[in-house]
């Protein structure tokens, strides 16, 4: 859910601002609202999630109303409107992946991380959730981790545990 | 071996780089088009080829191009639909990952044909690795003079950008995609006006699938007439098929349209048969939105003739005994899979992905998901089965965009062909939680298969 009362101040780095300027230059004059989705991805990559304050900043940058940012951020599934773990493990839960074991993998994930879908581990490192089709149905079960969206294919319980261990050590 | 037009060089090391791609004949189509053909001649070749949109609808690409309005002094746009999200479909991801320049080259030739000076590739946001690959390929192409000002001295200018989506299946619908590209929620627009008249920023726009645009390259290289010779009837050329589910060799295959379905599933050149020595129970031949078919109707038409991988053959028999080629997302179910569970899974998908704009879809997808959930989890009633058919009929055809149909068809077709499996779930709720219904008569030779009429 969108929490607009969240008022923690946020800063955008100069690298982020430069990236936003580059993105805005891709569209015709006066159509800079087109930059909204890519800019939100960049902001989330830097801050981990999209607070209302961060979205207000984006609105001011693109010279649009805050509601135009909120309605977009809450429509698309990739934007986080609340803080998540450092690594968000997203497992595909749609038909073809389920034919080759995605549901069992999610059960194992819950046990391995010790948190339910959508929750954050106590150390703040991990969240996980089932997501809809990731367009890699021939290589299921699959999983992705933002903000780089690194992709892992043909997973089983053991491979998943190894991956979690590696991320812990990072 | 079948002819390969798109994936011929897929295994060449470094084919993702401009240098190797050019060594293998890449960017010849750009040279040929910009130096020797007028934009209208390029459109003409694509028309002659008979190429049909590879995203799912199968509308002739050349015809779509010829509808583009060309008012004086108004910008025109080409937008590539790389929002590949249809469950079962992963061919565009494959193409963009391994041969990004095939898409870039196709975009340059197609943009030239349409007179677009700025073009966008809208890639689903989850494909960040592919977005990075495409951006690198665009930089390479620009460095080599294939993009930017005065390309190859032809006087034609083109800028090409990659736009990430935000994670919404609906943005694969072309007007929702345009809304999203304008920085808005992905709510499909009411048509008309069609994008060819008023698309991106209200300007004339063509939206084409990744594979359609990549196919323009061999069409220009070899001529539309040559392309038309491949395939069968009005299903010309080659098609990328994404094969998933319980197969020995799932993956992306390029087939000549007209290949028998049986050969595609069982031959070693393609999927190599059903995994773990199991039998085939059912298939979804063209992505999750198309009707599911039992094994017997997958392999044979209702009259007993072999079914082919083509637009016409897969839809032979209409929805009573046929399905659709769709996006080419071919999902195979072995004898241990539960059709009720899978139908519930797909319904959850459509409920999750409904944009919420039209009430039949917003509400109906949720009801179907709920009813299927209780059937799958042992709480179903016999009347639920007809209730599902009823709800699906009230969604179908009553929404702005085809997502409503896409949500209705899998449910209606599952009940049409697998009603006894649904009834078994109601009669044997405890058993259905522990075991599956199995293959029953779904693979019996076609003569014995009973074709159920829609009520």
Automatic annotation (TrEMBL), chain A:
**Domain of life the protein comes from:** Bacteria
Give the record's keywords alphabetically.
2Fe-2S, Iron, Iron-sulfur, Metal-binding
Q: Which InterPro entries match?
A: NuoE-like, NuoE_dom, NuoE_N, Thioredoxin-like_sf
Which cofactor(s) are needed, names only? [2Fe-2S] cluster
Cofactor descriptive note: Binds 1 [2Fe-2S] cluster.
Binding positions ([2Fe-2S] cluster): 92, 97, 133, 137
Q: Which GO terms describe its molecular function?
A: 2 iron, 2 sulfur cluster binding; metal ion binding; NADH dehydrogenase activity
Q: Does the keyword Iron-sulfur apply?
A: yes
On whether Metal-binding is a keyword of this UniProt record, the answer is yes
User: Pfam families recorded for this chain?
Assistant: 2Fe-2S_thioredx
Question: Could you say which protein family the record assigns here?
Answer: Belongs to the complex I 24 kDa subunit family.
Q: What protein name does the entry list?
A: NADH-quinone oxidoreductase subunit E
UniProtKB/TrEMBL annotation, chain B:
Q: What is its EC number?
A: 7.1.1.-
Q: Which InterPro entries match?
A: NADH-UbQ_OxRdtase_51kDa_CS, NADH-UbQ_OxRdtase_suF, Nuo51_FMN-bd, Nuo51_FMN-bd_sf, Nuop51_4Fe4S-bd, Nuop51_4Fe4S-bd_sf
Q: What class of enzyme is it?
A: translocase
Catalytic activity reads:
a quinone + NADH + 5 H(+)(in) = a quinol + NAD(+) + 4 H(+)(out)
> Which NCBIfam families does this one have?
nuoF_fam, PRK13596.1
Q: Which family does it belong to?
A: Belongs to the complex I 51 kDa subunit family.
Q: This protein is called what? A: NADH-quinone oxidoreductase subunit F
């Amino acid at each position: 859910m969108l929490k607009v009362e969240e008022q923690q101040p946020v800063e955008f780095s100069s690298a982020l601002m430069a990236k936003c300027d580059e993105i805005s230059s891709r569209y015709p004059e006066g159509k800079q609202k087109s930059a909204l989705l890519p800019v939100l991805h960049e902001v989330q990559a830097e801050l981990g999630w999209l607070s209302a304050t961060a979205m207000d900043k984006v609105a001011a940058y693109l010279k649009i109303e805050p509601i135009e940012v909120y309605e977009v951020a809450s429509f698309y599934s990739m934007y986080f409107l609340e803080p998540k773990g450092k690594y968000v493990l997203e497992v595909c839960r749609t038909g073809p992946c389920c034919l080759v074991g995605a549901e069992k993998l999610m059960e194992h994930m819950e046990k391995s991380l010790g948190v339910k879908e959508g929750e954050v581990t106590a150390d703040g490192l991990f969240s996980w959730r089932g997501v809809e089709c990731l367009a890699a149905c021939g290589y299921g079960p699959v999983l992705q981790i933002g903000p780089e969206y690194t992709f892992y294919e043909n997973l089983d319980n053991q491979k998943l545990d190894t991956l979690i261990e590696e991320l812990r050590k990072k | 071996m079948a002819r390969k037009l798109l994936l011929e060089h897929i295994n060449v090391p470094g084919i993702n780089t401009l240098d190797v791609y050019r060594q293998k004949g890449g960017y010849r189509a750009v040279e040929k088009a910009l130096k020797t053909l007028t934009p209208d001649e390029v459109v003409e070749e694509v028309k002659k080829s008979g190429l049909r949109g590879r995203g799912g609808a199968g509308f002739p690409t050349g015809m779509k191009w010829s509808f583009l309005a060309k008012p004086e002094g108004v910008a025109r746009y080409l937008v590539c639909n790389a929002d590949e999200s249809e469950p079962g479909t992963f061919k565009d991801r494959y193409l963009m990952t391994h041969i990004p320049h095939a898409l870039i080259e196709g975009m340059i030739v197609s943009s030239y044909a349409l007179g677009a000076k700025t073009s966008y590739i809208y890639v689903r946001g989850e494909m960040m690795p592919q977005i990075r690959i495409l951006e690198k390929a665009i930089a390479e192409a620009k460095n080599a003079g294939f993009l930017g000002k005065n390309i190859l001295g032809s006087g034609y200018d083109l800028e090409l950008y990659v736009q990430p989506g935000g994670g919404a299946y609906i943005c694969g619908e072309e007007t929702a995609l345009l809304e999203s590209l304008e920085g808005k929620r992905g709510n499909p627009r009411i048509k008309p006006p069609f994008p060819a008249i008023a698309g991106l920023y209200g300007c004339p726009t063509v939206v084409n699938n990744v594979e359609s645009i990549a196919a323009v390259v061999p069409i220009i290289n070899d001529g539309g007439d040559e392309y038309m010779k491949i395939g069968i009837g009005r299903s010309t050329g080659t098609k990328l098929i994404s094969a998933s589910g319980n197969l020995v060799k799932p993956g992306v295959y390029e087939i000549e349209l007209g290949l028998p379905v049986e050969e595609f599933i069982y031959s070693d050149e393609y999927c190599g048969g059903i995994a773990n020595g199991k039998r085939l129970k059912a298939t979804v031949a063209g992505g999750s939105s198309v009707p599911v078919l039992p094994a017997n109707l997958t392999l044979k038409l209702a009259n007993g003739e072999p079914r082919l991988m083509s637009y016409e053959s897969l839809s032979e028999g209409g929805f009573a005994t046929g399905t659709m080629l769709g996006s080419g997302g071919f999902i195979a179910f072995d004898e241990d899979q539960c059709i009720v569970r899978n139908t519930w899974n797909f319904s959850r998908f459509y409920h999750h992905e409904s944009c919420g704009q039209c009430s039949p879809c917003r509400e109906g997808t949720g009801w179907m998901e709920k009813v299927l959930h209780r059937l799958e989890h042992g709480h179903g009633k016999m009347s639920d089965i007809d209730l599902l058919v009823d709800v699906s009929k009230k969604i179908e055809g009553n929404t702005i965009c085809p997502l409503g149909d896409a949500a209705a068809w899998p449910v209606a077709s599952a009940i049409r062909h697998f009603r006894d499996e649904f009834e078994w779930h109601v009669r044997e709720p405890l058993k259905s939680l522990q075991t599956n219904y199995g293959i029953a008569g779904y693979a019996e030779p076609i003569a014995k298969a009973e074709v159920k009429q829609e009520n």
